[in-house]
Amino acid sequence: MALAAVSLEPGNVHYRLNAAEALARMGRADDAVKMADLAASMATTPEEQDAARAVLSEAEQFRTASKAD
User: Fold this and answer.
1) Residue ranges making up the domain that contains 60
2) pTM for this one?
């Protein structure tokens, strides 16, 4: 559903952050990082920027941990 929301409203940073979190939960670490990175580049408000940095950091940590396995 998160990916569908992004496809319907691609400019919505919050939808992209939700999708990044969902992708990470699905084990798609690389896709989660890409989605979070794109959201971070789109963020305009301080709140969006903070949220995007947090989700991107979590996604990168998840990717690192999943590659160590």
Assistant:
1) 2-68
2) 0.90
The tally of domains found in the chain comes to 1
From CA 11, how far away is CA 26, in angstroms rounded?
23
Residues of the chain with pLDDT under 50: none
Distance CA 23, CA 64 (A): 15
Nearest-angstrom CA–CA distance, 58 and 64: 10
For the purposes of burial, counting CB atoms within 10 Å of the CB of 42, is it exposed (0-12), middle (13-18) or buried (19 or more)? middle
Please check whether residue 59 is in contact with residue 33, taking contact to mean a CB–CB distance below 8 angstroms. Answer: yes
Give residue 27's Cα distance to chain centre: 13
